[in-house]
Amino acid sequence: MLTQSEKQLQFFARNMRYSVVDMVVQNEAAAYDHPWTKRIVIDCLRAGYQCWVLANKQKIVAHGVMSVAIGECHLLTLCVHPEFQRHGYGRKIFNLLLDRAYKLDASECFLEVRASNEGAITLYRSIGFTVIGERKNYYPGLEGREDALIMSRSLPLP
Q: Max alpha carbon distance in the chain (Å)?
């Protein structure tokens, strides 16, 4: 459990670097049953995707990766370490990614989210995303596969 002073630490957005990939992968493992691997994170950095972290000198509390091309962007991952969830860090990094995408001429954003991930769905809806479709059996689950909701919204944010 976090102390009040730990919750109030200042975290700053910065580009993800190769030197923090291990910390990013640790956050993924803490947050998800099926986390991204180190290879996936490195591939995203090499591809030139928008890869950002919220961090201080000691830790990374959140990270996000977004591809931007031909007027569209696609959120690939948004992860907040479980100890720091529900403190606005997911919203902060997602807004940063959406702003960066708009500055790179994206006018529409798409994402997939597990149908069972109520916290993420609530966040995305609060930012103006709407469900536009569904992908059956998209994600690996603890037992079998899980559906994904496809969500989108126009950019820029108001």
A: 44
- Annotated active-site residue 124? The verdict is yes
Query: How far apart are the C-alpha atoms of 52 and 63, rounded to whole Å?
Result: 6
Report strand pairing: 72-80 vs 108-114: parallel
What pTM was estimated for this model as a whole?
Answer: 0.90
CATH number at residue 92: 3.40.630.30
How many structural domains does the chain have?
1
The 10s digit of each residue's pLDDT in 37-46 is: 999 999 999 9
The catalytic residue among 49, 124, 139, 146 is 124
The length of the chain in residues reads: 158
Task: List the domain range (segments joined by +) for residue 22.
Answer: 11-154
Residue with tokens 């109030």: 8
Copy the structure tokens of residue 15: 């580009």
Q: Is 112 a residue of the active site?
A: yes
**Does residue 4 fall inside a structural domain?**
no
**Catalytic residue chosen out of the listed positions 112, 134, 138, 143:** 112
Instruction: Please state the φ and ψ torsions of residue 155, each to the nearest 5 degrees.
Output: -115, 155
6 within a domain of the structure (yes/no): no
